[in-house]
Structures are given as C-alpha cells and as structure tokens.
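Worked example 3 (structure in, sequence out).
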C-alpha cells in the first residue's frame, strides 16, 4: 500500500469510545430495524443508558472480550438470482444486537474519516464524496473513448466468490498495521472479531452457533469500510505494477475500477492481462479471496474489438457483456434499448399488480414514488433516455395515476410538493436534467478521478474540444457537437437550460491558466459584451489563448504567423493578410487588460492549476450565491 496515515490522522482513530461518539452514531441509525431492543429504545432512554453503555464498551476494550450476546449473530440468507439450490446465489446477512451495532457504527465513523486518505479514487464504496455512478461513468467513457480513438482496451469484470465472507482476519489486521492505524484502533477491530460466532437460520430453524475464523459480517457498519481497506491492497499492486498498462489517454491511464468487491479491469495488452491475474492469485493466497471464474466476463474494445480469442478461462465477447456490470448493460454496441426495455418490463409488471387495487390518489402517488419511478433513477443517472422512453414512462405512470381515465390535474401541478397542492410526482424529463446537473457538479468537484478526464474529453462544441472549459462558454443547443455521445449532449443541454441560475466565480489569475482559456464564445473575452466567434480560426485549431502566443518568450505571435496557419488549414484561399490583422487586433483588444500585460511581460513557469468554480443563485432574498460544489 503506497499511502499510510499520518500520525495526526492515526491518532484520530485512537482511544476509548466516547459517549458523544456513540450518541452521534445512534442518531444516524434507522428505527425499527432490529428485533428485540431496537434503536428506538436506545434513543428514548439514552440519557439513562448512555453513560453505562459507554462504560460497558470501554470495559470490554480494556479486558479484550465483548459480552457473549454482543459476540453472537444470526445469519439470514437472502436470495439474489439464479438457481435457488446453489449456495452461491444466496447472500448471508448477519442480524446483530443493536448495542453491538451502535459500537461498530461509532468506530465506522472514525474509519470513514481516514478512508479518502488511504483509498484511491478508483474505489468508491462507502467513501464520502464518491458514488457508484463514478464507476459507471469510468467504464462507459472508457469503452466509448477506446472505440472512438481505436485505442486497445480489454474490459474484464472480475467476480469474487463470497468476497466479504472469505476475508482472512489475519490479513485484515496486517492491512490495518500497514496503513499505520494505531494500536488502540487495531485492538478495537480485533475485539470485534475475537471468539465471535453465528447461527444460521434455515427454513425457520436456527443451527448451533458456529465459531467464525474468517469473514466480515454483512449487516455490520464496519464490514464495508474494512473490506474496502483489504481490497485496496489488490488495487495498489495493480496500480504500481510496471508491466500492467491501463487504457491509454493523454491525461489518465485507468487500470481498475472498484465498488467494494465489484472489480473491473481496464487493460491495454495481453501482458497486462496475464500480470493482473498473477496479482489476483497472490491476493487470493494472502487474503482468502477466490475468483469465481464462471461469473467473470470480458469485452474486447477499441482496436481489440475484432478479436474473438479468449486469453483466460472465462467468456470473452466483442459485442456487449451478457450480464449487467454494476447494474448497467455495457458494450461496443448501443445498449440503451436493452437497459431501458428491461426496466419498462418491470414497470409494467408492477403496475399490473397494483392496478387491481382500489387506491386513493395519494395511495397511487405513494406507489408511483416508492415502487415505480424510484426503480428508474439509477439508470436515469447513468444512461441516455431517448424521448420515446421518457414519453412511455410518463404515459404508464399517469395512466396508472388516473386508472386509465381522463386526467383531472395537470402533470406539472402533480409534480409540486404536498405543501403546494401537488403530490410530489416528478416529471421524468425534469428529473433527468437534475441528475445530469448533479453529474456536472461531481465533475467540477476538487477530487481527481479517471472518469473526469474521459467525460471532459467528450464535452465540446462543434470543432471546439475545450473539455470542462466548455461549461464556462456562452453557447446554444445548435453549437453542441452532434458527434459526441448522447449522454454528453444531455449534460451540455441540461447545463445550458440552467445558465441563468449559475455564474462562474473564479476567472483565471495565473498566466498558465490564462493561456488555457478558450478564445471563442468565452464571456471573459468580448467585444461590446458579445463573445467572439471566428469560424476559420476554430477550424485551424486556434482555440486557446496560448495558440496565439509564443511558448518560450513573452508576447503574441506575429500576424503573419497567424495568417499562415489560417490559410494552411482553411480552404478559403482568398483570406487577406489585412483581414487576419483585423481579427487578431480585435481579439487582443477583447482580452482583459490584466491578461494582456501578463502575456507581454511573462513566460509560463507554473503548471495549469485552475479548477473551474461556479455558484448557483440563492432563492433567498439578498442571500449569497451557493457554491456549486456544495
């Protein structure tokens, strides 16, 4: 592991548990979730029990042993899919005592503070500020980028057999030590897994209690963050291996994407594939993990998409993966209809079930929000929904709402909150726009991630590949490049519709940032408050301020050099030098005076540092705008 905690961050996790930590953990826990004494009981009687419960935990810590009832759990099996007679198709969830879960929640809160410092952005599970949508974006963008640029890519979905249940406790303790967690936090984790036992509930009967020698209890707040730490060992070795090459992009070379145990490899050659699985083999021996070859799938993309061979002992394809990858069908072929039809089929079945019931309008609204549209938001956040699909979803929804009869209330009224006379049923197209804006918000956040470079690659107007800077430009729908993927058109369209509600808050201040500003459609570069737009300059790739400046000495390029570039790249051979001089002079005059002074007197000594920042107008009167990253 390349990253370890500083002493300050390590100390944050140390020490006895405090009553305040336990109360904070308890407040965030859901009610009515555990049999027996649920969180409701502890929340109500906390003023009486809080101090005593804190003492119990710290006594157990000092003596190295939890009370018997806190060491035991009941394993309940939840069916996933497939053949019910096969054990691997059932997920074990451990039911634990609430007093145990309060302690593990408090310790998980300590641990989550440190996870962003230890875990690469390729892993998104249970880490603040990261979501599973980041994984989907990376995978989809990687496939699209590889196919567009004919870049070699082998995309491999690696399935691990009972990943949480196979984690070696010894491997877990060594991982904590390697991360530089202090002895007291390590002692807390060892306490939770010392002499623990579980009983399995089968057909309503409980087995005898079985001592647990390995595995993390799914159902415990600590299981996910602890698993993420152990999985980071695998990711670190793949990242650092000199002979494993990821997708080749000028600014980003991703090799792996992880959401807990859902692991996807993005590799550039056969040697990388071989070496990656050697690392998996070593990881299996060290951690207790085991690859489930029957469920692993792989996709040839980019310059590999015509390959039909299988370099490993599982299925390879060059069309699309047969199974979903973290909830989405992906492939070289367009999987939009496959993703949407699957959801529409489920939607129709749910409606058919509930349509037979005599429900009030509010009851139907609850079904729509709780069982219908809620099942679509994950797909809506990650794939393009064509107009026909949006229309069909709304037709199905509102037909159910009015039981096939003539609507009595406008759909926009129904979308209003209850307090404003509506039923809180969102318009699907509006919700999609909100989800696209949320993607842009995450794109503009400060944390670096591979998917952001790839998404930025596709954000551009016609002949203007300006990446994230496109969001700072003044444009309309007609300017969006028709060749970019539909999802990215959706992003730019949603941003365009939101134009009057956001403003850029950080114009460039350093010369490096100034030189990377787009020259055209830029609200910072205007004549009579109108951004410039020189079509022939754009075709000649004179897009950025740096394109009209010297690279090693201060100052602007001579007009003759600019004219030569323009006439070489454009079919219009009638362009006069005088016209080029006029446009160059107009452009230089449009630049802010501060920029011009820096360009004429300085050379670039600093790297590009600008992180685009925007603020949203605040609906409250006389209130400050809200930073978009919030």
């Amino acid at each position: 592991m390349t990253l370890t905690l500083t002493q300050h961050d390590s100390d944050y996790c140390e020490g006895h548990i405090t009553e305040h930590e336990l109360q904070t953990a308890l407040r965030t826990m859901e009610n009515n979730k555990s049999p027996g004494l649920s969180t409701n009981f502890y929340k109500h009687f906390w003023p009486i029990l809080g101090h005593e419960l804190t003492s119990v935990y710290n006594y157990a810590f000092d003596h190295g042993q939890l009370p018997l009832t806190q060491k035991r759990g009941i394993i309940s099996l939840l069916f996933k899919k497939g053949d019910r007679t096969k054990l691997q198709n059932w997920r074990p969830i451990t039911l634990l005592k609430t007093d145990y879960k309060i302690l593990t929640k408090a310790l998980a809160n300590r641990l989550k503070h440190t996870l962003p410092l230890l875990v690469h952005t390729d892993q998104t599970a249970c880490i603040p500020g990261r979501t599973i949508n980041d994984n989907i974006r990376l995978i989809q963008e990687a496939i699209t980028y590889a196919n567009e640029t004919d870049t070699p890519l082998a995309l491999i979905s690696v399935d691990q057999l009972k990943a949480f249940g196979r984690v070696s406790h010894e491997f877990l303790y060594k991982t904590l030590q390697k991360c530089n967690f202090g002895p007291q936090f390590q002692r807390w984790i060892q306490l939770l897994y010392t002499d623990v036992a579980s009983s399995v509930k089968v057909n309503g009967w409980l087995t005898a209690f079985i001592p647990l020698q390995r595995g993390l209890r799914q159902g415990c707040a600590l299981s996910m963050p602890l698993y993420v730490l152990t999985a980071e060992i695998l990711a670190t070795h793949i990242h650092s291996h000199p002979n494993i090459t990821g997708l080749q992009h000028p600014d980003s070379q991703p090799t792996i994407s992880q959401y807990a145990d859902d692991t996807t490899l993005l590799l550039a050659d056969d040697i990388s594939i071989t070496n990656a699985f050697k690392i998996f083999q070593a990881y299996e021996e060290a951690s207790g993990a085991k690859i489930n070859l029957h469920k692993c799938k792989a996709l040839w993309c980019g310059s590999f998409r015509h390959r039909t061979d299988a370099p490993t002992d599982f299925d390879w394809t060059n069309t699309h993966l047969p199974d979903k990858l973290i909830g989405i069908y992906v492939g070289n072929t367009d999987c939009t209809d496959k993703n949407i039809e699957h959801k529409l089929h489920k939607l129709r079945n749910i409606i058919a079930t509930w349509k037979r019931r005599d429900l009030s309008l509010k009851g139907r609204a609850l079904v729509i929000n709780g069982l219908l549209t809620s099942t679509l938001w994950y797909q809506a956040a990650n794939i393009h929904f064509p107009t026909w699909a949006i229309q069909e979803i709304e037709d199905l929804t509102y037909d159910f709402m009015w039981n096939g009869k003539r609507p009595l209330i406008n759909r926009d009224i129904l979308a209003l909150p209850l307090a404003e006379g509506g039923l809180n049923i969102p318009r699907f197209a509006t919700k999609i726009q909100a989800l696209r804006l949320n993607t842009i918000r995450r794109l503009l956040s400060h944390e670096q991630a591979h998917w952001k470079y790839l998404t930025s690659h596709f954000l551009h107007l016609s002949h203007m590949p300006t990446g994230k800077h496109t969001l700072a430009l003044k444009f309309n729908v007609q300017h969006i490049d028709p060749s970019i993927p539909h999802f990215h058109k959706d992003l730019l369209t949603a941003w365009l519709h939101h134009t009057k509600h956001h403003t850029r808050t950080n114009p460039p201040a350093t010369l490096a940032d100034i030189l990377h500003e787009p020259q055209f459609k830029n609200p910072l570069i205007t004549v009579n408050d109108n951004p410039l737009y020189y079509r022939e300059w754009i075709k000649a790739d004179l897009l950025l301020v740096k394109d009209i400046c010297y690279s090693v000495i201060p100052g602007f390029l001579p007009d003759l050099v600019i004219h030569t570039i323009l006439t070489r790249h454009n079919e219009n051979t009638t362009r006069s030098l005088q016209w080029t001089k006029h446009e160059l002079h107009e452009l230089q005059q449009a630049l802010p005076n501060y920029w011009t002074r820096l360009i004429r007197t300085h050379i670039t000594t600093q790297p590009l540092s600008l992180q685009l920042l925007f603020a949203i107008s605040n609906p409250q009167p006389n209130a400050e705008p809200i930073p978009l990253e919030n």
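Notes: The two ends are 31 Å apart (CA to CA). The first helix runs from residue 7 to 12.
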